[in-house]
Amino acid sequence: MMLQSRLIPLLLMLWSVSAFAIEVRYIDATQSTPLIDYHMNTSLPDALPDGVVIEGAGAVKRAWLVFPTRRYDHAILGDDIEAAGIRVELATGEQLTFTLPEGSVFEDRYPRLVDLDNDGIEEIVLVRSYLDRGAALAVLKINNAGIELLAESTPIGLAHRWLNPVGAGDFDQDGQQELAVVITPHIGGVLTLYKVEGNRLQPIYQMPGFSNHRIGSRELGQSAIVDVNDDGVPDMAVPAVGFHELRLISIINGALKEINRVAHSSPIRTALEVRDLDGDGDQDLTYGLADGRQVELLLP
Hints:
Elements: E1 7-14, E2 20-28, E3 54-55, E4 60-69, E5 82-90, E6 95-99, E7 104-106, E8 112-114, E9 123-130, E10 134-143, E11 146-152, E12 163-169, E13 178-183, E14 189-197, E15 200-210, E16 224-226, E17 235-239, E18 245-252, E19 255-263, E20 273-275, E21 284-288, E22 293-298
Antiparallel strand pairs: 1-2, 2-22, 3-4, 4-5, 5-6, 7-9, 8-9, 9-10, 10-11, 12-13, 13-14, 14-15, 16-17, 17-18, 18-19, 20-21, 21-22
């Protein structure tokens, strides 16, 4: 009997802090729906050549990185061109610009819009890298005076050290959103959750053993925020170092815990996309492997 290789469903039950089943389907990429392409360049004035325009649904209509510069020679995202500023177009049509001083750049490809203070206006989250101290996570706020720095994490401490955001969510259900990142994803990445405290981003949870970026890649989306066990609380899906395993992480009893893990014979290669794959109204995950297969994780 010939094995049907186009679609091979596999039911995977893993037991950890809380047990739940994940159906893992491997699909020949030639037979699957392509993942969304976020790698569109923009021809807007002053735009970063490989930047992505992010569209908002509230006060911010769209935002993008501007003022390309070669003053930081890290090239972790494929070239040595980074951004010295960001431009925001409001729903009113007004445009605002924020420019960094000479000692730092936005070592990023796109801003992330998150309403962290629940005032109805999205804050802007970006990776800011200092020429002598490496990367920090920065939060910018829009107000009547324009755009200003609201809060920032402590830089990693060395030049050419970087971090890659995972996303935002109220992971510990305290009523305040946290910002999740992987610090140094290329050298023993540490999943870190920050909370805004005054003008600082303070690390409140940490866990080692993750990577959500490859050196020289423009793909920043190799992790995702998703409710993996259908309990109404956001969780984090982040590859382990080496990309052969996807670790599903939640906050349990005041600490980061791995609640499930999915292993693959081929490393994860693409972005993680959150979709309802089976039409049941719940979130699922899909991503591509280096061997050409696309993975569909049907979550509870």
